[in-house]
Amino acid sequence: MAKEEVTENEEVKTEAVETPETPETEVAETATEEKQEEIKTAKAGKRSEKALKEAEEKQAKEERKAARAESEEEEASKPKQHANPTRSRLERQGKNFRKAAEKVEKGKTYSLAEGLELATKTSPVKFDASVELHVNLNVDPRHADQNLRDNLVLPAGTGKNIRVAVMDDAKVEGADISGVETILKALEKGEINFDILIATPAQMPKLGKYARVLGPRGLMPNPKSGTVTTDVAKAVNEAKAGRVEYRVDSTGIVHVAVGKVSFGAKKLEDNARAVLASLKGNKPNSVKGTYVKAIHLATTMGPSITIDNSEL
Question: What residues form DSSP beta bridges with 237?
Fold first, then answer.
């Protein structure tokens, strides 16, 4: 009997050992159940993968927005740097130009003689600068009769060493280059060693091939400029003597160099008056009212001098 009771007690103890229930086991089982419950809920709902990702993106966006606002506040709190005021055109010029411009009285209109005398004293460059005459006319170049163009010989010359080429087989006195074949060969190579090209009417067809080269440079012979003529010797003498050609630009302004600073005021005045007389003589009949809008003088890279319109 005693043996049987012992066996039964051992079996009971064994069963008790095999199935013990501890607090740790209960916690583990509860956690597993909660996790499974979360997985079930996360498949469709506020805790889904998509919803979590959207929530993270929204939070990141809010953080960036807050950071930007903070940065803007910092920038606003910083003292603003003083913006440099825009300098006038005169202030942006070089020291020599500003010094020369001080001699020209602002707003004053000078006579031609006074203006040319002042021009010889306001050249800011070291070389012998040209003196330029700029005349703004009340003309419309789109109309053929108002598209002014002419040439004249300046009484005191231009002060330039003009190289003259002549399209003629005969040698012309005073010409730097002469001979039809010589000039054509040079043009074929792209060599232009002259400032004025003079040709007879018979030779003009041979220059048609080079019109795109000569035209943009103002070197294409033209009857209006006196460079297409049968009297080649006279044309050469005039070119060497100081013949200039002027033409109104698209805005109605004529630009002509009337000599060099070294000429002095008297010679410059003679040349300038010859140009003004030519402009006056070429006034179109279709222009009514005021013919001259403004006249200005200036040396190369020098300040502008306003001349009285009554000089023309």
Answer: none
**Residue bearing tokens 């440099």:** 84
The DSSP element (H or E) to which 60 belongs, if any, is: helix 49-77
Q: How far apart are CA 154 and CA 246, in angstroms?
A: 12
Q: In which element (H, E) is residue 256 found?
A: strand 253-260
CA distance 209 to 222: 15
Under 8 Å between Cβ of 171 and 291: no
In tens, the pLDDT along 252-297 reads 999 999 999 999 999 999 999 999 999 999 999 998 889 999 999 9
Q: Are 211 and 224 in contact (CB under 8 A)?
A: no
Distances in Å between the Cα of 13 and the Cα atoms of 50, 83, 175, 184, 245 are: 53, 95, 140, 130, 133
Specify whether the CB–CB gap between 39 and 31 falls below 8 A: no
3-state SS assignment for residue 90:
coil
Asked if 170 and 200 touch (Cβ cutoff 8 Å), the reply is: no
Amino acid symbol at 213: V
Q: From CA 135, how far away is CA 275, in angstroms rounded?
A: 10
Q: How far apart are CA 275 and CA 174, in angstroms?
A: 25
pLDDT tens, residue by residue, 95-115: 888 888 888 988 899 999 999
Where b means 16+ CB within 10 Å and e means fewer, 112-142 reads bbebbbbbbebbbeeeebbbbbebbbebebe
pTM value > 0.70: no
Residue type, 121: K
Q: Please name the residue that has the structure tokens 């411009």.
A: 101
Q: Could you tell me the sign of the dihedral formed by the alpha carbons of 98, 100, 105, 106, in that order?
A: negative
